[in-house]
Amino acid sequence: MRGQKEYLAFWEELIRTRIKAVRFNKNWECSSGCTFEFVAASLTEIPTFDAEGREINYKTALQGIEAAITRFQGFDTKKLQENLERLKKIRIKLAELGSTMKTLS
Fold first, then answer.
1. Residue 22: which H helix or E strand, with range?
2. How many domains does the chain fold into?
3. What is the value of pTM for the model shown?
């Protein structure tokens, strides 16, 4: 039987190897799964869009996840916080590599 760790690894691999762009529904930033998927897409510089087709850049994602963590204060937001920290590390790593990725804006 497989658990959450394997499930997330599957989706990360799928996004990294088979997906050309990722769209997120409204309030995606409140979901630990969706924020994980955003991080996975960001790792490989895959374009990310909201439900209306607008690009989701790093700043928008960061602000949205931070707002969700604040909004759900008093609830378990550990996974959101972990994904937020992963996203921050990705930005630093990509900046060090000289990425021209739009999502760094």
1. strand 22-23
2. 1
3. 0.86
